[in-house]
Give the backbone structure.
Amino acid sequence: MLLSVTGEIFELKAELNNEKKEKRKEAVKKVIAAMTVGKDVSSLFPDVVNCMQTDNLELKKLVYLYLMNYAKSQPDMAIMAVNSFVKDCEDPNPLIRALAVRTMGCIRVDKITEYLCEPLRKCLKDEDPYVRKTAAVCVAKLHDINAQMVEDQGFLDSLRDLIADSNPMVVANAVAALSEISESHPNSNLLDLNPQNINKLLTALNECTEWGQIFILDCLSNYNPKDEREAQSICERVTPRLSHANSAVVLSAVKVLMKFLELLPKDSDYYNTLLKKLSPPLVTLLSGEPEVQYVALRNINLIVQKRPEILKQEIKVFFVKYNDPIYVKLEKLDIMIRLASHANIAQVLAELKEYATEVDVDFVRKAVRAIGRCAIKVEQSAERCVSTLLDLIQTKVNYVVQEAIVVIRDIFRKYPNKYESIIATLCENLDSLDEPDARAAMIWIVGEYAERIDNADELLESFLEGFHDESTQVQLTLLTAIVKLFLKKPSETQELVQQVLSLATQDSDNPDLRDRGYIYWRLLSTDPVTAKEVVLSEKPLISEETDLIEPTLLDELICHIGSLASVYHKPPNAFVEGSHGIHHNCILMLIVYNTGHYCPSGDLLGDLLNLDLGPPVNVPQGSSMQIGAVDLLGGGLDSLLGGDLGGGVGGSPAVGQNFIPSSVPNTFAPSPTPAALSSGLNDLFELSSGMSIATGGYVASKTVSITGHYVHMFYCLYFFCCVFSFGVIPTTPLAMHTPLMPSQSIDISLPLNTIGPVMKMDPLNNLQVAVKNNIDVFYFSTLIPLSVFFVEDGKMERQVFLATWKDIPNENELQYQIKDCHLNADTVSGKLQNNNIYTIAKRNVEGQDMLYQSLKLTNGIWILAELRIQPGNPNYTLSLKCRAPEVSQYVYQMYDAILKN
Amino acid sequence: MIGGLFIYNHKGEVLISRVYRDDIGRNAVDAFRVNVIHARQQVRSPVTNIARTSFFHVKRSNIWLAAVTKQNVNAAMVFEFLYKMCDVMTAYFGKISEENIKNNFVLIYELLDEILDFGYPQNSETGALKTFITQQGIKSQHHTKEEQSQITSQVTGQIGWRREGIKYRRNELFLDVLESVNLLMSPQGQVLSAHVSGRVVMKSYLSGMPECKFGMNDKIVIDKQGKGGTTDDSGKSELGGSGKQSIAIDDCTFHQCVRLSKFDSERSISFIPPDGDYELMRYRTTKDIILPFRVIPLVREVGRTKLEVKVVIKSNFKPSLLAQKIEVRIPTPLNTSGVQVICMKGKAKYKASENAIVWKIKRMAGMKESQISAEIELLPTNDKKKWARPPISMNFEVPFAPSGLKVRYLKVFESKLNYSDHDVIKWVRYIGRSGIYETRC
């Protein structure tokens, strides 16, 4: 088989043109085999197409297979095949008719598609169900190639007619095709789900293939029953599917039931019966093949968060078997912890202890972590958990010990002053800790309980030796721990604290560390009493469940049971490209100025470092600080306000306003937001920013000005930025290689998307930007208008809106006043809609217009709003309800800004 | 939906590649090979996301089957489809091996074209497929018009799993109740978890389109009949049920031929069976399980270099019944240097490559007891890590159903042909096997 490609092709060409049919067939087989392994055999196109005119079905299918692969690269020659297709669509044999229409749909060449329309129209009305079911799928194929044509040719209506077809498989395929097509038209009611159609689907559900049942159930789950009676009657007809042998049918049925359960009255008998019926099939899924078990477990993880009552009795089925694949083991462990309760904790702990002696490192770690989570979750068990953990520490297995120490720290945070007796045991293992997490945990424990550990200073000092080699996490913890120690035992540890403060501030590049060092330093030098109050204040206890999925995301994922979203535990738009045609990318535009001003602010540091820890305030240093502060402010404001304040630097051009794309119609474009300079002590240049949004998804451009205070040129600027709260990160890091001259500005745009790690920032819309150049790394933070995170599919269904509004506790409702706004309700709706805030309903109550609105953030958080507009009164009342009330404030600001723009 | 389907050999060479969607390119084939097949670490999940493309894979012997998509597909469906794909291939050419796949690649492409259309799974019942996709490939031309429409109506129809016009001279039915009993027991003999997963597997050779009704000693049905007063005793004795009256079934799932709505409303199992082999139902029970064997382990560490192991097994069923193929697997530490074994019955061997003592007994009657003792010599090691002590596992086969399930009746009605329920020859067999039957030590 290792012939040279050209030689092989030459040979195949000859064989393809052989007179004997059998020879030709063998040759086409060889071509397909070559195609499979990735060889380019497209040059044989005309020869293969010649073989198409045959009455041998097998040969025909092979040629078709070839055509599907290469037609796109040879569009002109593909036309040669059209005639044969059109002829086959008229063949008396339904298998051949279907084959032709099926294959034609797979050939993505415009010219062929044109010829496809007529045969497809006929096939959609073919007398044979096999042809009709194939034609139904073909409409979806055609839509993928040319959506407009499908609409113009009226194929969508034909497809809708097929929902009433007498053959169940035709119905199922039509449903599948319509569901997919409607995904790209989120607002059109393509499927037209009304009670009559639902009834047809439910009838077909009983009769079609297992796959068809899945299509229909997935489609049903998008239906919103008009009342509880309808919901119940659908549930009754869906429940028998829970006994199907195909796990996908079962999971899709579970999805429909989980969704409709919300609509049933909670105290009814039927509600409770239904809940009981859900548990056995879910357990049965765990006796399937491991891959299906994995999918089931990921879904069960969601279901037990939403409705723990369903599986609370079944914890035993989640016990790990020795031979389970590792992915099944890890998932089972997660669910075990979720189901752990006072009633079963003894069993669970015995299991976990067993697992902690297994081989797989990840699994063992997770088991140890699980013991800690049990302790935090089930208070009565804390003591047993701690003693189990101590047993595990005795094993001296390195990673077990480290993991155990991390969880013991959390236990201390949940039950302070209860288990300190074990600290001695922990300290014995100090040397074996080589992971940052474990080291940080141990340091935290030593610092927190310094007064009870005689040699705490020695222990911490030993960590200090290699301070610069530690990870940031350990450095920060160590700094805090030593400050705590100092506040507790000031007499013996003064030297130590001096040492750590100078290490953190003087010798470190890390701004966080430096900042924290300075904060402590200032605090300790100004007022030790306050310092004590601040540093040693009582900490809030950690909550028992830190790893729960956010409720709105959970609700969304419940609607995706069985699908990939439920496996990844992410909303579909987090991993599907162009879902609903929106690209969640935004553009960061940076404008860099080098204004060439020089500001001698470096000396500040020198003074600070001489700080004495003795008496509180030190006058000269204080004033030096003040001078620095004024200077900083001056520079910062200056660039923001276009030099109006002219605080010493002056001359920076106004930035921001110019960068709102003019192509954006009716869209709110916020003015530039002030940038906070966080690395003020080294202000060589500065930055301000603005954001704007463009239509078609959201494209936010961010304008940033960087004002240089230094005469040098900058080389090699790199920009990184992230908004952790929404996971915004640049799609590609940006590098700029041209030097930046004094007073020069450069426009840089940086595409962003929202798939980065998520960490809560304060404020939420804080954008951190790092600029690296030949001198140093500079850090800035600025605010992004929250509206760039409003997604286009933020329109909630009315019923869901009502249910969600009721579901969110009243204490989450926040009221704001929007003052001096003179718009009528419709203009308001329109303006808001342009920014992806959707009006779901409008009511007129006693002369007031009430607008009910919803919006959704990129991270899946929904915000519900009620806007009250009184005619003649320029002050509107805005009530916001959200599961994460901390965003409300920012949403209000956006409302205010949008309406006043 | 499914965007593409690839089959690889163990080296990661592509044997079959079929792309259904435009968003899946040739590079997807390589991405899976590089990131999964050739990955340094063991795969940690059957679903892998590489560059916004999701890969689902299953492995059969050393063949990888991978389905690829860029959409938010129904994940359970994709896996079920891959399993089905394996079933179909096995039904056509036997074992899934590199050789068989290479020899049948044309057939596989033909099947893939038929059972996945634009990534939507279509009818994948082998019974139906075999009527028009044949290895000869030419058969389809010789169908008459009626035959053609019969094929299409079967492929798309309500009873896609059975064709019309089947005839047997002798109408015969084989019914196997196959159970696997699973146990996890603590060293102290406490049952941590136990369940039976059972299957009712049938082979039916029946003429026409027979309507069947299957009955078993399901607690819900028996209780309902008891309440109603009208006991259907005729069925009860028919296939020889005795022992426990009824059993509680936690859950069951059925072949798609069973009318689920009827089961839901009346709990009766009625269906038109496929021809030949098929699995009628699966079920699971957790209550009142007969555990055929008990394992009593005793492990003693004598110093750092020696272990003493004693294991007693007790059979717990009627003395008249015989268990077969009994195998007890006692794990040994990795640093074992030598093992001495004494057993009363059967043969025991230390298998160094498997790190276990394997004790085999051909047959054992009920209510008996047997014992093995072993001395394990260990090499001294510096390894701080303790030996994980995997559980002692057991394999066996017993001629009864550990769940207590009994078949009460299987009635066959075929109104159009002149044979009645009594003319059908029926065979019933019960086999209980060990699933994961483990005792921790």
